[in-house]
Amino acid sequence: MEYLKYWYPKTQLEKEGLKVVSLIKKSGFLAFWVGGTVRDILLRRKADNIDIATSLNPKEIAKLLRRAKLKTLFFGEKFGTICVATKYGLIEITTFRKESDYQDFRHPSKVEFVNSLDADSKRRDFTISAMYFDPIERKLFDPQKGLVDLENKIIRFVGDPVKRINEDPLRLLRAIRIAAQLNFTIEKKSAQAIKKYSLSVLKISKERVKQELDKIMTLDKPGVGLRLLDQLELLEKFLPELSAVKKSFHNSSTYHLEGNVFDHTLLTVDYLPENNLDLRYAGFFHDIGKDKVFAIRKIGKDKINSFQNHHLRSVDKYKLIAKRLGFSKASRSRVLWLIENHDDLYKFDKLPCEKQSDLIFNPNINDLILLGKADDEANIQTQKMKKYGWKEAKKLLIKKIKKEKIVNKFSSGKFLIRKFHLTSDKFFGKLQKEIKLRILFNKIKNFTDLEKFLANTLDKNKKIV
After folding, report:
1. Taking a C-beta distance cutoff of 8 angstroms, is the pair 349, 232 a contact?
2. pLDDT surpasses 80 at 66
């Protein structure tokens, strides 16, 4: 609380939000910043958007914003929300309201606008989201005792947890995501309600589930949120395939001492960069097929449970999951390629040169190497293996980057057609691929080498022989 006395707007978005509050208050109405905006200010975190709660009704808000010549969006007007679009982010302005009859498990079918801040606070999801801050007078209003929970690092539903969940089951996922994001604990009754009503997660649209899962996957340590999803029995409801791998163990005294395949999966995701969502999903699902394959393999004196060709089963499972959660076509394609090839990376130095080349020239190779490294780091061992495939792949990738200029020139379709009068036919792509391969492995170092190769490869009609 003491901090708020000396608070001042630090970002351009906060300055814009301050102007909007000032505009409403000058018209004689109440206006407060609310929700995650206030929570983030108190935690001294940067807010991505600003939510304003006001006693002014939506029609009057719209008139006020138009007079002030602010750019407005009206997609939430039915529920009392109008947005101001600034170049720094959105400012959402919502009239104080009561809500009831959530028939679609998301939107209230009945909204009643009120003048009471206290009444408005009772419809909110968590106590730490029900704090109201006047940025002009720098005063905090806390009808649901959210500040105490914030100081104690607790996520607690406002009022009856069951009622809050039944109003909008997405709150099941939001509670876990915010707890993981802030490193908070979910209060006991709230956690019990989440667990008891975990099946309600199936009432949420796949788009909203995916959005919350995306937010968890981009946290600094997503494993915290993913494990919490598992502990509160949500994961098994919408991703039962991951619950199955908890029963899969490597049973080795030397390798994979981190626990079961699920434990290994969470560690893998944590070791991957947070700004690469597709890569993290690839790490999340790369071993999801291990419960379908099993064999005992001997490494030195150690006998270990082996899961040969599990990548193929993982691909099959991921295809179903991607459809169920609505992954975009581009993301689905990238994640599939990474899962499908992650096992090849392990034995990279033993692969044929052509296969190595196919991997190295794929635009996703760097992500595959990062996945291999994370997969390796998530394998807790008492002794280190002599070779790591991802290291061998990285060496060849560095070599490829050094040769990028000559590769791009000599394998260019325009260059080959112009310089050697070749025709683009069904064999042309195969020829380009072979040239890349030979450059990569030092068989073509210059133009003379390229001429010799083409002379031995093409007949008089410029076709591959």
Report:
1. no
2. yes
